[in-house]
């Protein structure tokens, strides 16, 4: 069992992770056994060896790491997930660890999932599915030092099947966000998962919930537009986002350390360059408004 002392609130740690790295990058640790670099094939713990390579290549430009649990449990490699999280703590101590498990159940099962994420694996946060309502989400938000990332408007093509259904004048994802933010977020440890492939919807959510941070998948392999994402999702202080990239980073150049490093640096630089551009545009707009008064 892995256990890490986390004295600060999740909200504080999120800010700290972004400031320490100067970054909004979240690196997905999704090591598909069929795609691992050939030079790691003979390793006794190949997923862990690959993750070490990724972490070593990204430790100073990543605000967070997001291991997807299925890639470990599918091959009985949960021990390699534990080792990977421990290595993140050593190599990038300010970075957050988000367990991508998309849990959603009630009662003692939900409590067991909470222990799995925060005690067994020592994660700082976990992705959750809100379909079963408050009693499937609240257990993950009960402790202010840990976070829950709520599926809201996701990046996959099938998301529209349910998430865009409209009632009372709003799509379902807007109702989910409003319910979660207004009624479940007492500790300020909620994040919303909002895909980079839907910048218009992201802009609506940012306008409705200006202080709630978003986890943003869909940049890279899924084709999300980085500039549109940042314009839609950044908060008033130019943060409020974790931009998640998995396949486009970790398998870059066949998964060599140099290629992973180059891809991570490129994403990091592109995000910060566009943040700066947007900040300058805001300042120019404020100046024009002041002049016109």
Produce a short descriptive summary:
The chain has 293 residues and is α/β, with parallel strands linked by helices.
Task: Please specify the SSE layout and strand pairing.
Elements (H helix, E strand, L loop, with lengths): L9 H12 L3 E5 L16 H13 L5 E4 L2 H4 L4 H14 L4 E8 L3 H14 L4 E4 L5 H8 L5 E7 L6 H4 L2 E2 L2 E2 H12 L6 E5 L4 H10 L5 E3 L9 H8 L7 E5 L1 H4 L6 H36 L1
Parallel strand pairs: 1-2, 1-10, 2-3, 3-4, 4-5, 5-8, 8-9, 9-10
Antiparallel strand pairs: 6-7
List keywords for this structure.
single chain; alpha/beta; 8-stranded parallel β-barrel; two-stranded antiparallel ribbon; 12 helices
What amount of the residues lies in strands? 15-25%
Give me the CATH architecture, please. Alpha-Beta Barrel
Q: Poorly predicted ranges (pLDDT <50, ≥5 residues)? A: none
CATH superfamily: Aldolase class I
Number of strands: 10
How many helix segments? 12
The average pLDDT value, as a whole number, equals: 94
The CATH class turns out to be Alpha Beta
What series of H and E elements makes up the topology? Answer: HEHEHHEHEHEHEEHEHEHEHH
The biggest sheet amounts to: 8 strands, parallel, barrel
Radius of gyration: 19 Å
Helix content: 40-55%
């Amino acid at each position: 069992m892995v256990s890490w002392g986390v004295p600060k609130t999740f909200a504080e740690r999120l800010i700290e992770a972004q400031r320490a790295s100067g970054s909004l990058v979240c690196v997905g640790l999704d090591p598909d056994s069929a795609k691992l670099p050939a030079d790691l094939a003979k390793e006794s713990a190949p997923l862990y060896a690959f993750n070490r390579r990724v972490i070593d290549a990204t430790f100073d430009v990543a605000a967070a790491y997001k291991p997807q649990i299925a890639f470990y449990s599918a091959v009985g490699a949960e021990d390699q997930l534990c080792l990977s999280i421990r290595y993140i703590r050593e190599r990038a101590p300010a970075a957050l660890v988000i367990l991508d498990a998309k849990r959603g159940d009630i009662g003692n099962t939900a409590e067991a999932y909470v222990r799995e994420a925060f005690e067994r694996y020592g994660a700082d946060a976990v992705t959750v599915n809100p379909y079963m309502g408050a009693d499937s989400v609240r257990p993950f938000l009960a402790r202010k030092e840990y976070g829950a990332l709520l599926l809201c408007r996701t990046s996959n093509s099938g998301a529209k099947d349910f998430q865009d259904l409209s009632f009372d004048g709003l799509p379902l994802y807007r109702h989910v966000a409003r319910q979660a933010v207004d009624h479940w977020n007492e500790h300020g440890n909620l994040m919303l998962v909002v895909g980079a492939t839907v910048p218009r919807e992201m802009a609506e959510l940012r306008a409705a919930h200006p202080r709630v941070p978003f986890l943003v998948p869909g940049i890279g392999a899924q084709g999300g537009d980085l500039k549109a994402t940042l314009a839609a999702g950044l908060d008033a202080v130019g943060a409020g986002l974790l931009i998640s990239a998995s396949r486009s980073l970790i398998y870059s150049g066949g998964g060599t350390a140099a290629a992973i490093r180059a891809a991570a640096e490129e994403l990091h630089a592109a995000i910060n360059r566009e943040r700066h551009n947007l900040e300058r545009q805001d300042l120019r707009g404020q100046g024009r408004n002041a002049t016109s008064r």
